[in-house]
Amino acid sequence: MKADLLEKISSRTAVVSVVGLGYVGLPLAVEIAMAGYNVIGIDINDKIVDKVNGGLNYISDVRDSDLSEVVKNGRLHAVSDFSIIRGADCIVICVPTPLDLNKQPDMSFIRSAVRKIAKHLHSGTLVVLESTTYPGTTQELLKPVLETKSGLICEKDFYLAFSPERVDPGNSVYNTKNTPKVVGGIGRASTEAASALYREVLESDVFEVSSPAVAEMEKLLENTYRNINIALINEMAIICEQMKINIWEVIEAAKTKPYGFQAFYPGPGIGGHCIPLDPFYLTWKAREYDYHTRLIELSGEINQYMPQYVVERVYKILNRYKKPLNGSRILILGVAYKQDVGDYRESPALKVIELLEEEGVMVQYFDPYVTDFTNRGKEYKSQELSKEILNKADLVLIITPHQSIDYQFVQTNTPFVFDTRNAMKHVKERNNIELL
């Protein structure tokens, strides 16, 4: 049976189903289709299904022409009905794994998807989970559900593995196709099957580990590493501001060391679908073993404090000019969670806006990648970056350093700029600029 599956994968006759067509699923589905496989995308959102089938792209990391091509030639189509899995040889799960209000893992999307998959699972199928989660999910959650609901036995009748997604929206160098892949299967056969699929589709290396738990923990290590180092540099920025030392100059100096140092940069907080969330999966799971991840939890506290710290700095800046925070006009540049993307999930800008409005601030924003958004039931629309709106603002607050913004124009036409990202480092006249 394994030989038959490997033959289908190598000959590209295997039918692949990608469950969840978001920031991870759609780029993967397109790459698999471009590699010559027939791909069935499954998503419970009918609007997404219609967009895919219409060749209408909604993910920045997918080229419009690539999506249009694979849809037009019949290599990719989308449905909302899970029964189509009966005809699939490989199933890759890319559903969301958010946190609930108590910062605990919300596994409802995975549970729902796996139950629906199990109803239609047949012998000889490979199932791979890519959604970021806590160590043990594949073994403890997916395997029992798939076996119980389908009546099949893992490693005998079907294959199961975990391979963490590595998506960095807006990265001009690394993407789904050329980023190395980590694969950990329930057993040797599962690892071999999953690795074979990725090796056929991707240009990058595939690194095999001994179990799904190792692969799950590896993903959490990647982002916890970043979370902790960002917290360190954020705390350094707070200390440097009090000591009247330029943290950005300090970092540039430290970067001259050719070993033992990697540059991280401070900012108004962390955002996106990984770094603000993933460490909480580990802290939650660690409690099962009566261990509190003190360093990880402390780094989370520091990073979550940064939006509040930004607002405190805004208050001090306005106070120097005898302007109260209440009733002031603040223009925010950038609400996306990172540079040059339109993704605002978990963006620190949302919390900063919320805190400013609680203090009576009249907030407007400009973002060339986010024309509008809704937060806590309130709708916001991007303004035109004009002389008029810059002149009227008491303060311009840079949250996201999009490269397309003319920062010289901003500096010239506004009373004061609080730059939390060093976006204006090339602007020579700095009398009205303050850095984080």
Characteristics:
single chain; 436 residues; alpha/beta; Rossmann fold; 2 domains; 14 helices; 41% helix; 15% strand; elongated
Question: What do these coordinates show?
Answer:
With about 425 residues, this protein is α/β, with parallel strands linked by helices. It is built from 14 helices and 15 strands. The chain has helices at about 1-10, 25-35, 45-55, 65-70, 110-120, 135-150, 190-200, 210-240, 245-255, 280-285, 295-320, 350-360, 385-390, 405-415, and strands spanning about 15-20, 40, 75-80, 90-95, 125-130, 160, 180-185, 205-210, 330-335, 360-365, 370-375, 380, 395-400, 415-420, 435. It has an 8-stranded mixed β-sheet, sandwiched between helices. Strands 10-9-13-14-15 form a 5-stranded parallel β-sheet. The chain starts with a helix and ends with a strand.
Task: Briefly characterize the structure.
By secondary structure, this protein is α/β, with parallel strands linked by helices. Helix content is 41%, strand content 15%. The chain folds into two domains: 2-215, Rossmann fold; 243-435, NAD(P)-binding Rossmann-like Domain (Rossmann fold, 3-Layer(aba) Sandwich).
Give the CATH superfamily of the largest domain: NAD(P)-binding Rossmann-like Domain
In angstroms, what separates the terminal alpha carbons?
59 Å
How would you characterize the largest beta sheet? 8 strands, mixed
* Strand neighbour order, sheet with most strands: 3-2-1-4-5-6-7-8
How much strand? Answer: 5-15%
CATH class of the largest domain: Alpha Beta
